[in-house]
């Protein structure tokens, strides 16, 4: 279903009221012009009666114009909010793989520029409706004055419409190109912010990025959008010129039509002069519809691409696993993806792995061997192309993968830290969170109040410790840490491996740690080595469990 239809259905009564006010405003304006023309060509004695009608029409025009503007402003903001919420829900509900393919820059462009274009259409809609009603009403009035001049006016309008029609196709193409260029521009903006350190360290790179990459992308958006909008200005100028031609024909009508009533000539000149502004506004606001059409097509394209085969969150209330989700098996799991560095497809797997409750497992391997991709596959962010994943004996598929993911918490190298612990168990959340903050020596900088951190303005290592707090408070049975200790100083690195991980294991958690810190591997139950996307070997340890028991008692 078209995004426009969805939006119109959501606000149909507000839209209908606003449209009615705009149409009434346009019709009242035409009647007011007719009243003015009648007053100008009437004897002075009859003017007294016209003043009352003129005043009533002026008040009605003011009331309907103001009401229409207020209603359409409300409609615009309502549309913008609903559209952003619609896109956000699609993004949150999309499969992670589809979201990666779409890219953050394109999603940001949709939520900012494209949604604003669609909302702006509803701001301009009263102008289109009111001025459309004025133009139609004025021509209807002209037809009652003189059929011959009216036919000439229709011919001129058709000639102007032909020019607009010829420009319309090119305008759409220019606006579509501008939209594609804007996606690229948002990617460059993202790179500018995320790569600020690298740009600061290399002045030549920064200058080249600004002058070549950013400048050319900004120029492409400007040129295509300016060309599209300029074509409408040309069409509007052409239409204005034709109206002055019409006025000249009306003024010279006694020469080629014989005797013409002065009321007819006056009426035509007044109407032509009056209708020029509404017609120009009409033509100038038509690009709003074209921009909104292009943007709505882009929104439908992206949100349609984000719609995956997974069952949406909350689609099935029954949890597929009867037990506490403690036994996880991967049988011949495989996943393929494209790697730009090698310019070829990389195959992860087949992987056979069994993870049990209360087990601490280290995963090691060289950079690029597929460790992080394996973690995403294990977490259910990627669906395996072959093989299967079993949780407590139940196979994970598209129908229950959303539930499966809820058994995990993870911290990736490129983690994001939210300012509140939305979704964490609420019982004694602040007390438990502040206890974790004291344990990680962050209580002098951060406190947890009403489930929200007092600040996130910390170093990278400290923010990772906050992420660890949030992860532990979620209290999930499976935990995955991807190079968590890489940003920590030696003291906290020691705390993580010797205290935090054994504590989590003692609580019955299954913990997978991707790490290069080989001095701590003996503290785990197993060490798994990965090479070229496959498990190349496994080493078992017998770590002391008495310390774990003491940690549980202390907790």
Layout of helices and strands:
Layout: H1 3-10, H2 12-40, H3 47-93, H4 96-102, H5 104-145, H6 147-194, H7 196-201, H8 203-251, H9 253-257, H10 262-306, E1 328-339, E2 344-355, E3 360-364, H11 371-378, E4 386-391, E5 394-395, H12 401-405, E6 408-411, H13 429-439, E7 448-449, E8 452-453, H14 460-474, E9 478-482, H15 490-506, E10 510-514, E11 526-531, E12 534-540, H16 546-554
Parallel strand pairs: 3-10, 3-11, 6-9, 9-10
Antiparallel strand pairs: 1-2, 1-4, 4-5, 7-8, 11-12
In short:
With 555 residues, this protein is of the alpha/beta class. The chain has helices spanning 3-10, 12-40, 47-93, 96-102, 104-145, 147-194, 196-201, 203-251, 253-257, 262-306, 371-378, 401-405, 429-439, 460-474, 490-506, 546-554, and strands at residues 328-339, 344-355, 360-364, 386-391, 394-395, 408-411, 448-449, 452-453, 478-482, 510-514, 526-531, 534-540. The strands form three sheets. A six-stranded mixed beta sheet has the order 6-9-10-3-11-12, with helices on both faces. A four-stranded antiparallel beta sheet has the order 2-1-4-5, covered by helices on one side. The chain has a two-stranded antiparallel sheet with strand order 7-8.
